Amino acid sequence: MTDAHAPATELSDAEISEQKAVRLGKRERLIAEAQDAGGGAYPVQVPVTTTIPAVREQWGHLAADEQSGENVGIAGRVVHLRNTGKLCFAVLQSGDGSRIQVMVSLAAVGEESLARWKELVDLGDHLFVSGEVISSRRGELSVMADGWEIAAKALLPLPNLHNELSEETRVRSRYLDLIAREQARKNVLDRAKAVASLRSTFAERGFTEVETPMLQVIHGGASARPFVTHSNAFDTELFLRIAPELYLKRAVVGGIDRVFEINRNFRNEGADSTHSPEFAMLEAYQAYGDYNSIADLTQTLIQNAALAVSGSHTVTWADGTEYDLGGRWDRIRMYDSLSDAIGEEVTPETPIERLRELAADAGIEIEHPLAGKYVEELWEHHVKADLVRPTFVMDFPVDTSPLVRAHRAREGVVEKWDLYTRGFELATGYSELVDPVVQRERFVEQARLAAAGDNEAMRLDEEFLRALEFGMPPTGGMGMGIDRLLMALTGLGIRETILFPLVK
């Protein structure tokens, strides 16, 4: 904006404290004045008639020094401020980042109002202004004020909007990030578009959205360490949900053949660039589908989300890199791709002793009773980093996938895939295990691992097994992290895609 400026340097803690004291004094004055005239520092309402984006859309064509003849009442946050003599300037910003200049002149508002403006208005205040829409002599779309009012007094000064906020500030004070940075506001809108697209794609295919419990007596549906809490009302230990899977499958047993949930999950594990202890998850189940049909659905869900966010299957990340999500995605087998990568055939029959040797040769530090765990670790070490395009990695070891149906044609593996994009796991899909007898056997094995000290092993869930005994149809299921979907669409880390991430 040519008619306004911002502070050139960041304020120290002492300066911030001093400014807060000054602003508190202005707050007191506004409240005192309000006893007679209304308004105050935090009025319940201001008479807005339109929005800043609407004004820009309708009158953005005005030539320099042209008047619209239309009076408006607008409100926004003061992000630039310049007080000079008989004409003062401010720039108001709306929630979407749109801005407009405000001009306050002695001739239009009078001496008393102009003096109050100079004394009471600060950067960061929410301000209501009424007046005619014009274009300044420099061609800046503006409102020539004939009246103004504080809509909300800011007690703390904004950071310098010309300087980039530190990552720490962006994460811990997301509200400042949203004020200062267009990318932060775009992230919120992109996430909303992506989630709306997911729901639309499901609706087109006859899926029903449901809600399942976040507080559970028995945690299950994934291999993860849960958060533990206590219910005073029931005097019992409860777990925050690590996955909605076992409840969604109950819904399929009950006849909701196509079901999905977008939910919050909680896993008491590490946090890094792709993991958060609290995260958003999509899970979906389709009766009479399998892991092949659910892979097709997952590809469609993601490609439609890309269209919603970017208008194309080729998305542009925040750093300018383009990533192609179009076409039909590759499908590779875990054991075959691992064998190709290390130049030695690895199969479900490969002895665990040999797998331990291969892990040691690769410098992988792992000690686990399950051979499948070594296979997965070896695959991640040797293959994952080379996957550039979105790729479905098919057919996992049976001993690491207790809720998955055994492969219809290959011994020792299950019909499971993981979808990798940008080198990280984005989604997983199964041909679901629906045989209650085999499922009980798998749960018993998990219980044995838990007794041996595996904090991520699943617990035996008798109520879920009872539901299966009433008959669950052949089903394909999938799960996808919403935060990770946004990572794939935007190229950002997980703390950028979550509006308010958990931090220490």
Automatic annotation (TrEMBL):
Query: Pfam families this protein is in?
Result: tRNA-synt_2, tRNA_anti-codon
Residues that hold Mg(2+) 1 according to the record: D418, E425
Keywords from UniProt, A to Z, are:
Aminoacyl-tRNA synthetase, ATP-binding, Cytoplasm, Ligase, Magnesium, Metal-binding, Nucleotide-binding, Protein biosynthesis
| Localization, UniProt | Cytoplasm
Q: What is its main location?
A: cytoplasm
Record text on cofactor binding: Binds 3 Mg(2+) ions per subunit.
Query: EC no.?
Result: 6.1.1.6
Q: Which cofactor does it need?
A: Mg(2+)
Q: Which Gene3D superfamilies match?
A: Bira Bifunctional Protein, Domain 2, Nucleic acid-binding proteins
From the Swiss-Prot or TrEMBL record, what is one GO molecular function term? lysine-tRNA ligase activity
Residues involved in Mg(2+) 2 binding = E425
Catalysed transformations (reactions): tRNA(Lys) + L-lysine + ATP = L-lysyl-tRNA(Lys) + AMP + diphosphate
Q: Which residues form the Aminoacyl-transfer RNA synthetases class-II family profile domain?
A: 196-501
Q: Which family does it belong to?
A: Belongs to the class-II aminoacyl-tRNA synthetase family.
| Stored PANTHER family | LYSINE--TRNA LIGASE, CHLOROPLASTIC_MITOCHONDRIAL, LYSYL-TRNA SYNTHETASE
Subunit record text: Homodimer.
What name is this protein filed under?
Lysine--tRNA ligase
Q: Please report the organism this UniProt entry assigns to the protein.
A: Leifsonia williamsii
The top of its lineage is: Bacteria, Bacillati, Actinomycetota, Actinomycetes, Micrococcales
